[in-house]
Amino acid sequence: MIDFQRPWEDADLSMFRQTVTRFMLDELEPADEKAREEGNVGHAIWRRAGELGLLCTDVPDEFGGGGGDFRHEAVIGEELYRRSLTGMNIAVHSIVAHYVLNHGTDEQKQRWLPRMARGEMVGAIAMTEPGAGSDLQGIRLRANKEGDHYVLNGSKTFISNGLLAGLVLVVARTDMNAGSKGISIIAVETEGREGYRVGRVLDKIGMKAQDTSELFFDDVRVPVDCLLGGPEGRGFAQLMSDLSFERLLIGVNSLAMMEGAYEATLAYVRERQAFGKPVAEFQNTRFKLAEIATQIRVGRAFIDQCIQQQLEGKLDATTASMAKLWASDALGRCVDECVQLFGGYGYMNEYLIGRMYVDTRIQRIYGGTSEIMKEVIARAM
Asked: Which residues form the catalytic set?
């Protein structure tokens, strides 16, 4: 077994990782099959994660968070994705918390962040529409100001945590004629919200345990103090400012899934017999695993450097895009090779590697497609 050490992990973080791992093994993993069948993990597991201090770990304790830093978020993502436990999209929950923390008013931070940290309010961000994906300028959902309320009309799709969300940050048009300056983010507390409706949980090829949904807004009225940060027209800038955090998380999670796939495959080929000897003894198997191990080692060096830059506040959009692009592409190649080494069993959902095969594909799409990442990188040349 090759040891993929993290230079940023100290003794305290190792203890935190043990807590995270126990939660995964004792509570999340046993419920994973049921969650995949039902399309969501339910609210109870979110509240349990909150009780254990596993939500909003890098949010200051004055707002109910864990008072940690990005490393704590990385540890949680790694332990989730190395097991392909994708039902709890803690990354999206954390991204929502960051939008509130970085752009919200003091009152908004106090109102929402403690409840998110306790798992009482699951976070989602509603950007994508049936006719608008990566091109946010195509957003059509309207938020018209009427007195002391905004009235929202429109729909969103592909919304992670959509079914269970208690707080949805809705990217909306507050001015149809102002281009990117006409986009704002409206926070919608969903419980009992008249006109707010969750559509079907979408039937995805992978990440079956995660509640990815359609959302509908029919004359949904929310107070004006739910406009993120106060003034209108800041939504596009707010979205752009936090993309590096999101894309690095995807890079971290992708690398962790590579490590999980490698470890599962290594264990399998050592046990599996073919032609009278373990599959691990065939040269092709050894060479394939050597290539994967090398990719992981190279990726670990780059991702760890990005984590350090994030901790120092120096991670730029170009580097974060490189992290997402490289790690998600490498993950796809790695898992495909691992499925091949499993043979027919790799095609079975009962095996971790089979679930990983379909769970990994979205990494090259959400958070900005690989093509968008290349465009961001190319613009910086």
From this structure: 246
